[in-house]
Amino acid sequence: MTMTGKNTGADLKSGSYFFLLAALMLILATIGILHFFSAEDQKHLLAEGGFFENLTVLGYGVCLLLIWSCWPWQKVRERWYFSALIILFALRELDYDKSHFTLGLLKARQYTGDMVGFPEKIISIMLLVLLVALLISILVNETRAFISGLIAAKPSELAVLSSLVLIVVTKSVDGLGRKLADFNITISKSVEQTATVVEEIGELGIPIMFAVAIILSADFYFRKRSVL
């Protein structure tokens, strides 16, 4: 590798970290800015089928386009499970797992109760098995590289880690008031509204960080061929 190549690689890596940080700051800034909106405006923007939910679904669509345009087709085919996972995230955001099933595809009662007909229960089980197989494929094929990337502090892996953190955070604050009420803990309306803002913008942040990871992984892929 020439000195010019080393400098170019360092500049690209610095730019990758800046890109990652800028995306994270965008998510945090959006959460902060929404606090200056009235409660009515927040409710309108964050409602089911509202602006931010539609933007989140659009974000997953952008992720698919990025995979198909930024990655070589061989990589797209070999890592088919990423495209499938993003489609599932988009369908989940549109509540397909609830609206097309009696109790919800991811609810235990869908499989154990007597409210669901046998044909629907069989279809639900088949879809759940496919979902589990998809997750296992990702874990088997990507875990080692993901951990190695985190140890090396690669921006693409850090972006994936950020999306995983956002998934955990959004699931934790979803229905926070209801969850805490089970422990006889009551929170104020303002705290509950803040939790809603964090949940909805955090959900938007997931495809944003996915997109960052896709772009940066393509950056690393082509860098190996242009810099080394």
TrEMBL record:
Entry keyword set: Membrane, Transmembrane, Transmembrane helix
Entry keyword annotation includes Transmembrane: yes
Residue spans crossing the bilayer: 16-37, 57-73, 122-140, 147-169, 204-222
Protein name: Uncharacterized protein
